[in-house]
Every structure is written in structure tokens, then in C-alpha cells.
Design brief:
4 domains; binds glycine; Rossmann fold; Dna Ligase, domain 1; 31% helix
Length: 425
């Protein structure tokens, strides 16, 4: 098959590597890709926002299947436009991507389908928001309804902090994403990411992971896209996984189908495991980044088979095989991230690190200079991933590889995996 993968991050490098290893992959293109994906297939410069460009490329190159990594093209309806042209695409329609695109949409669905989630209220002006916040008390969570690149959620410890967040969001700091807010109960427990494939009717559990959103060691400092992750999440044992599938994932799949907007693709549930059980914090409608970088090294099945079963509605006839190994990834970011990252700084010894046993180095925000030197190009630059019999073993391998990389312009967290490792002690 001839495949086109959309995206350019560490997630896409992890997907590209797995796709390129499939016996069904005859050609792989990545748009726009990065220097890492260039080793898995052919990078192509396409204007992904212009769906016409993508469609024209698919026709010219006889693409059989398009796989979409990030959320923005999904929410913009790229899958709908491809399918209208008879091109197979892996990912939800625009209507189904609302599970990620609108927090209010997901909360209403939870009410309708009886899915456990935090109590909430939708608000359209600051006065109503503040009245509800004062009535509920703190801690309380303030969320912009729309996509806000990770900046749309404030977990407020005090009423004052919540009110400042309300003024910031309604003040236009997040643009259209903040036209409506959701104010919700602050859940207490341990967070985990849960991934399932959904074909419109059936759902299939993939695996769990935990990421590290804060920029600093000990979970301090501002939120980022994710500074590291590991899989599996020890808190998601088999019984918990079955419960999440039953109470949260399949209930969502049934409700979306009933509404006439069936969900197809990857459903990524952000969960809080509370004393009462798992509760849905939010949905993403794609693989996580950096979670994908720890899922793919553990997946032993052919990724193209799984994707085809999803697109063709056959998920009830396929069982993915996973390695018993754990995987852990450490994100190396450019100094300045998550503010303004320093770009154009030189990175050395990536190949030496990548050659180490059970280590994979995924590129996220890199570029190559004409002389071949590797440079930083974005905030999150590399995801250094290792496998091991335990999370602790994967952690020590990953950090050994991190130490081989010479990059004065970068930084990383030194404690990825701490929660899981503390548990086993
Ligand atoms: P997001 O940027 O949407 O991934 O959410 C950011 C983070 O906010 C989540 O990963 C949680 O740590 C936290 N969060 C969101 N909603 C709640 C909630 N209702 N209770 C506690 N923490 C929450
Ligand atoms: N790592 C969280 C996300 O991909 O949204």
C-alpha cells in the first residue's frame, strides 16, 4: 500500500517508523515530516491546511490510505474532504473530532451517556462564571471550550485565581477558543492516558501511558505539551482497563453512533483514577505526543493491519500484540520552552545515542543544515526512548542515551517515571 502520514512531531516519527516496518507498506510519504521521518519514507512539503493540496497529492501518488497525526487537520475536516474524494483516511470526521475540539460537546455527551466525569457548568460571560465559582468554592477548574494548544485549562487553587483565569479567557487571550468556558469540579486522584481504537461501532483497547506535563522536575513550573512519558501506566491494570472500556470508551462510541456521527480513529482518554473509579477529564481524538513514542516501541502487531481494521470496521476481529516490556521517553526541549524556544542551536551525537541497545531517538523539532549538522527547530526537539523489562530499567537506559547527546541549547527533566518507580519501591 501507498501511505501518506500527516504531521511533523515526535508522534509522527514514531508512527512513520512503525508504518515503514509493515509488510503492507510499499511507499510512505510524510507531510511535512522532519529529519527523523526522512529515514522512514519521503518527506513532502504540502500545505496541510489547504485540503486541496493534500487531495491532489493523493491522486497524483495513488495514495491508498492517509493517516493523520495531529488534531488541527481533524477538527478542520480533512478526513471528510478526503473521504468525499474516495480516499481512505484514518481519523475521525470533523463532527466526531468535536470530542477534542469542544470541551462542552464532550461534557454534554457524558451527561447523555452517563459517563463518569467532573461536575460542570457551561458559561458564556464572566459574571455567570464568577457567580458559579463563588458558589462552588475552590479548588476549581476553568477551561476554554475550544482548542487552545494546552493553554486552555487552569486548575485554580483559590477563587481569586479562578476569577483571573475567567477574565483572561473571556478577555480574548485565547481567541475564539475562549468564547465559551466550562467550569468544573476539581478531581482528586492519579492521572493516566488511555488509548483505544474505534471503528464507529467497536472499540479495542490499545495501551495506557502517563505523561509529565509540567516543565520542571517534581512536576513544577508551567504546563507543556509533555516532557516525557512511560507505558504501561501501573495504575491501569487489566480490571481497570476493562472498566474504562465499558464505562467510558464503549459508552462514548455508542452515543456517537446513535447521534449519527460515529467516531473512527484513536480515542485518547485523559483519565483521573479517583476513589470512586475512573473519570474522564477530556478526550483527544488522536495519539498523544509524547505518549505515542512509548506506545509504538511496545506494539508488536503490524500497525497498518490495525489501522485498516479500524477504517474498515473490523476491530472485533483483531487482537493487537504488545511487548511485556515497558517503554519510557525523555523529551529534550530547546531552552526557553514552553515560552519562546531558542532555535538553530547545534545538536551532536544523536546517532550514537540511537545506536544504543533498546534505544530509539525520535525527532520532534529538528532541522538539518546544508552541511548536515542537526539543529533545533521547535520547542520539543527530541524524544529519547528506551525499552526495558521494567519502567526503572527503561528509565536508566533512556537517561544513559540522553547523556550521550551533546546539546548545550537544550534541557530535559531528570525525573521522568518517578511516580511509577516510587510505587514499585
Ligand atoms: P489539558 O490541557 O486539557 O490536557 O488539561 C490539562 C490538565 O489539567 C490535565 O492533564 C489535568 O492535570 C488538569 N485537569 C483538567 N481537568 C481537571 C479536573 N476536572 N480536575 C483536576 N484536574 C484537571
Ligand atoms: N501529551 C498530551 C497530548 O498529546 O495531548
Amino acid at each position: 500500500m501507498r501511505l501518506l502520514l500527516i504531521g511533523s512531531g515526535g508522534r509522527e516519527h514514531a508512527l512513520a517508523l512503525k508504518l515503514s516496518q509493515s509488510s503492507k507498506c510499499d511507499a510512505l510519504f510524510i507531510a511535512p515530516g522532519n529529519p527523523g521521518t526522512a529515514h522512514c519514507g519521503t518527506n513532502v512539503a504540502l500545505d496541510v491546511a489547504g485540503h486541496g493540496d493534500v487531495i491532489a497529492f493523493c491522486k497524483r501518488e495513488a495514495i491508498d490510505l492517509v493517516i493523520i497525526g495531529p488534531e488541527a487537520p481533524l477538527v478542520a475536516g480533512l478526513v471528510d474532504d478526503l473521504e468525499a474524494q474516495g480516499i481512505k483516511a484514518f481519523g475521525p470526521s470533523k463532527a466526531a473530532a468535536q470530542l477534542e475540539g469542544s470541551k462542552a460537546f464532550t461534557k454534554e455527551l457524558c451527561v447523555e451517556a452517563n459517563i463518569p466525569t467532573a461536575a460542570f457548568k457551561r458559561v458564556y460571560d464572566a459574571e455567570a462564571a464568577k457567580a458559579y465559582i463563588r458558589q462552588q468554592g475552590a479548588p476549581i477548574v476553568v477551561k476554554a471550550d475550544g482548542l487552545a494548544a494546552g493553554k486552555g485549562v487552569v486548575v485554580a487553587e483559590t477563587i481569586k485565581e479562578a476569577e483571573v483565569a475567567v477574565d483572561m479567557m473571556f478577555g480574548g487571550a485565547l481567541g475564539k477558543a475562549g468564547a465559551e468556558l466550562v467550569i468544573e469540579e476539581c478531581l482528586i486522584g492519579e492521572e493516566a492516558s488511555f488509548f483505544a481504537l474505534v471503528d464507529g461501532t467497536h472499540s479495542l483497547a490499545l495501551a495506557s501511558a502517563q505523561d509529565h506535563k509540567r516543565v520542571g522536575d517534581g512536576d513544577t513550573g508551567p504546563n507543556t505539551g509533555g516532557m516525557g512519558a512511560y507505558s504501561p501506566a501501573p495504575i491501569i491494570d487489566e480490571a481497570m482497563s476493562a472498566r474504562v472500556m465499558r464505562e467510558i470508551i464503549q459508552s462514548t462510541v455508542d452515543a456517537m453512533k446513535q447521534r449519527g456521527t460515529p467516531f473512527c480513529g484513536v480515542l485518547f482518554a485523559g483519565l483521573m483514577i479517583t476513589k470512586e473509579g475512573p473519570k474522564l477529564i477530556e478526550y483527544n481524538t488522536r495519539f498523544g505526543d509524547p505518549e505515542c513514542e512509548v506506545l509504538m516501541p511496545r506494539l508488536e502487531s503490524d500497525l497498518v493491519d490495525l489501522i485498516l481494521a479500524t477504517v474498515e470496521g473490523r476491530l472485533d476481529h483483531i487482537t493487537p500484540q504488545w511487548s511485556h516490556d515497558a517503554a519510557l521517553t525523555v523529551v529534550m526541549a530547546a531552552k526557553g520552552y514552553p515560552g519562546t524556544p531558542q532555535t538553530g542551536t547545534e545538536i551532536h551525537n544523536v546517532d550514537q545515542a540511537a545506536a544504543m541497545k533498546d534505544v530509539t531517538v525520535y525527532h520532534a523539532g529538528t532541522s538539518t543544515r546544508e552541511d548536515g549538522a542537526l539543529l533545533s527547530k521547535g520547542g520539543r526537539v527530541l524524544a529519547i526512548t528506551a525499552r526495558g523489562a521494567t519502567i526503572a530499567e527503561a528509565q536508566s537506559r533512556a537517561y544513559e542515551a540522553v547523556k550521550v547527546i551533546e546539546w548545550p541549547g537544550g534541557f530535559y527533566r531528570k525525573d521522568i517515571g518517578w511516580r511509577a518507580i516510587a510505587k514499585t519501591r
